[in-house]
Amino acid sequence: MTTKPRAVVLLSGGIDSATTLALAIADGFDAYALSLRYGQRHDLEIAAAANIAARLGAAAHKIQEIDLRLFGGSALTDDIAVPKDRDMQKMAAEIPVTYVPARNTIFLSFALAWAEVLDARAIFIGVNALDYSGYPDCRPEFIAAFERMAVLATKAGVEGTAVSIRTPLIDCTKADIVTQGAALGVDYGRTLSCYDPVPDDQGGVGIACGHCDSCHLRRKGFADAGMADPTRYANPVTAG
């Protein structure tokens, strides 16, 4: 039997990471999903990630505990209000307070360590540089720089078997992403994108606020794709 190549897939529980996991599996990888409980303001996304990993058939799913609340500096890890009802122009004009300092650098570092142990040849991350909230660590330049660093910093890199950083969604709109994922069987009703959700008393993944940047981008993605959005929102509004 032919052994599949291994890949580590960063899995947050949202649309982008769920689609990325599905794409990695469709590309023929044994996908090892990695989620990080980093002190984010809600734990609901971790439960969503576990459900997604099981449903899509990840080879394994690990949850790494770290605590970025030690540093704060973000509305996701500190006592800072999550911005609500910003239009798309405002989202694109500045780096929002939901940016978590160095988060993707930290996440990729954990993924890189596990990839070395697994002898994995790829790390998948669902960063996106089109329909996104302006985070600097979602840009192609950052990914390329991290990949160069990984060659220098690891045994695998020194020995000529460096890990590649795969970003299959980097140039996709949210509509592109949900269209691809739906074709691969991703159940977006089990994903959670909201920055400020509340628990769902009906047993779902959580009720999204409907007003944060992530909710606006999610709603716009489904609308642009001509697909029904399966998310439960609290007092939703139309994305600007």
- Backbone structural class: alpha/beta
Give the topology string: H per helix, E per strand.
EHEHEHHEHHEHH
Number of alpha- plus pi-helical segments: 8
Looking across the biggest beta sheet, what order are the strands in? 3-2-1-4-5
Average pLDDT: 92
Q: CATH homologous superfamily - what is it?
A: HUPs
> What is the helix fraction of residues, given as a range?
25-40%
Calculate the terminal CA-CA distance, rounded to whole Å.
Answer: 51 Å
Using the coordinates above, name the CATH class. Answer: Alpha Beta
Please state roughly what percent of the residues sit in beta strands, choosing from under 5%, 5-15%, 15-25%, 25-35%, 35-45% or over 45%: 5-15%
Task: Give the overall shape, derived from the CA principal axes.
Answer: globular
Poorly predicted parts: none
CATH topology: the name is Rossmann fold
Main pleated-sheet profile: 5 strands, parallel
Radius of gyration: 17 Å
What is the tally of beta strands?
A: 5
Architecture per CATH nomenclature, i.e. the level-2 architecture: 3-Layer(aba) Sandwich
